[in-house]
Amino acid sequence: MEQIIRNQPRADKKKKLSFDSILGIPYYVFLVVFVIFPLLIMMLYAFTSNAQANIFNIRFSFENFGIFLTSDYVFKSLLESIWLAIVSTLICLAICYPLAFMVSRLKRRTQTILVLFLTASMWINSLILIHSLKNVFLLAGNLVVGFDKSFPANAIFLGHDYSIIIGMIFLYFPYMFLPIYTQMTKIDENLFEGAADLGANKFQTIFRVVVPLTLSSVFSSCLVVLLPATTTLVVPEILTSGNRKMIGNLIEFLYNESQFGQMAAVALVLTVSLLIIVGIMKLLNRYEEVLSND
Mapping DSSP to helix (H, G, I), strand (E, B) and coil, where does residue 123 land? Predict the structure, then answer.
């Protein structure tokens, strides 16, 4: 009898594991079909010397990577794309973090209204958003050069690095703001009262209480903004009238020219670069969590 009682939890555990495995089948199928399989095809194209070859006629070569490394234009586009994405992410963080803190300290009803307005752009198509921002730049250009001027005379604010950065901030602002704000609303009010009782001013409370408790949301928000900003296609295409080619535009160009091998090589190098950045941010996140726990 005692042996049956001892074996009962193990049977329940096996049943639970099998049930969880069954629930995970759709996820595993989706992961294999839409993530792993396309990545394998991309790797096959990246390491083949014939761009027109199919997956059954592969001749392995590093030719596409050689073209990538020897082409100053491609390598420069990659570095510029990552650099502009990092700058946009940091500026967006500098705007959203204090804004999220101020909104989280307001009344609940006021918070709901402000969050609704601040995240309303998430429900609008990105093409419409960037075209509207382009019209704002053109209107500002008319204020400088005169309203009797037309395009391209009034496009003095388009085609620059700052126009691309503003466009990416404008497009990805809600994705930086919302996770940080959500985390700040979960902070216990007793922590603020305790910090005040111990003599901490507002700045000390923010840096010693709020920042350690919101670091995980900061890193996740930065990743959510950094990754799409690096590979964005819409922002440079519209705000520079196609004159500024970032890495996303370059991949599109190679696809249109049927240069699938070079396109796959560029995409693979970009993927590895982004994975390295993500890994560094994850390490920093763990380090900060250890410091906050201490």
Answer: helix
